[in-house]
Write a structure and sequence with these properties.
The structure is a single chain. The protein is of the alpha/beta class and about 350 residues long. Helix content is about 45%, strand content about 15%. The protein is built from 12 helices and 12 strands. The strands form 3 sheets. A 6-stranded parallel β-sheet has the order 9-8-10-11-7-12, with helices on both faces. A 4-stranded mixed β-sheet has the order 1-2-4-3, covered by helices on one side. A two-stranded antiparallel ribbon has the order 5-6. Helix 3 (about 65-85) packs across helix 4 and helix 7 (about 155-170) packs across helix 8. The termini are far apart.
Length: about 350
């Protein structure tokens, strides 16, 4: 027989029996903010948890195994904290909060999801997953950071946000954004116009991120003054970059020689962030990726950090994470077949006795 009791937003007493726990939401918290319009958020929470949830007034009754109830109570506690600091809850923020709780890292979802990097026109740029938070923290702590992960994990976007934050805080005097001019599986052919017009297609993602974080009217002025520089990787050769926040994007399309050239541009008072996805290499033929090689070279170097993001950190459409996982499974199957094929050929080639 189940027992019911009030809960003051702390973990329920462990038990192997099915129990009911009642969470009383503080009076100043609007239930609609927690549960969503027409209970949209409540349905997301119910689908995500193993406990049954019933709401009456400002009381939320959670029924299930004690361990499952504990997770549910912690989730409601964190969501209420997010509301207190002015965050608008969405289905994605609930999924991210639950993912952080399930990671059992000791990090509180409310602290991770309320960390503001930049605020502009009412829009806050902040990490949305635990790995994104660790990536952002690593940029604060280390001189050179590699952000490696699939599309949609915020590698470049968060790096640009940290660069703008550092510039506004006068920690650096300029931002340098660069990427290799490698075509993604298709030939663009002759590009008309000025040098800026020719390189714009390659650097557009970096410029788009800047436009989200700065007044668009100020970007040409900052570019002319040299405060912001957006240039192809080839333009970095022979330079020493001091007092700068330098971002190399699409680093999987660098050769080992280009990667070495870029990293040795680091000057005094500067920081570097290198981002890339080793599953999307567009280099021709058998050319090795500098991003793949550099991990083996710099792993033990002090003040160099490798941050790994995965499909669980994708913050684009939900399907993007599923697509990334599907391709990873397909790549693993292809690699297994390539490994087995030579063994089968060797077995067939043995002479019969």
């Amino acid at each position: 027989m189940s027992s019911a009791r009030k809960h003051n937003l702390s973990d329920p007493t462990p038990s192997t029996d099915r129990v009911s726990t009642v969470v009383v939401v503080p009076g100043e918290q609007a239930m609609v903010a927690l549960l969503g319009s027409r209970d949209e958020l409540l349905r997301v929470i119910e689908r995500s948890l193993d406990s049954d949830i019933h709401v009456r007034g400002n009381e939320i009754t959670i029924t299930g195994a004690a361990a499952d109830n504990a997770v549910a109570v912690r989730l409601f506690e964190e969501l209420i904290e997010l509301i207190k600091v002015g965050q608008h809850l969405t289905p994605d923020s609930i999924s991210h909060a639950l993912g952080i709780l399930n990671a059992d890292s000791g990090e509180r979802p409310a602290e991770v999801l309320s960390l503001n990097i930049l605020s502009r026109r009412g829009k806050n740029i902040r990490p949305k997953t635990l790995n994104q938070k660790r990536y952002v923290d690593a940029i604060d702590k280390h001189t050179v950071v590699f952000g490696i992960g699939p599309a949609g994990t915020g590698k470049t976007y968060l790096a640009v946000a940290k660069a703008v934050q550092a510039l506004q805080a006068k920690q650096v005097t300029r931002i340098i954004l660069t990427r290799p001019a490698v075509e993604a599986g298709e030939r663009l052919g002759f590009l008309p116009g000025t040098l800026y017009d020719k390189i714009d297609p390659y650097l557009r993602p970096l410029l788009d991120a800047l436009h989200d974080m700065l007044d668009p009217d100020s970007i040409p002025r900052l570019t002319q003054a040299g405060t912001i520089e957006v240039a192809p990787l080839a333009y970095m050769r022979g330079r020493s970059l001091n007092d700068a926040f330098i971002i190399l994007d699409e680093a999987q399309n660098t050769t080992p020689e280009q990667m070495k050239m870029f990293l040795t541009r680091l000057g005094f008072g500067s920081r570097m962030v290198v981002t890339g996805d080793v599953t999307q290499i567009d280099l021709p033929g058998d050319t090795r990726s500098g991003l793949k090689v550099v991990r083996n070279i710099l792993t033990d170097i002090e003040d160099v950090h490798f941050a790994n993001l995965t499909s669980t950190d994708v913050v684009r459409h939900r399907l993007v994470g599923d697509i990334v996982d599907a391709y990873e499974r397909w790549d693993a199957q292809e690699a297994a077949q390539v490994h087995v094929a030579p063994q089968q050929r060797a077995h067939r080639s043995k002479p019969r006795r």
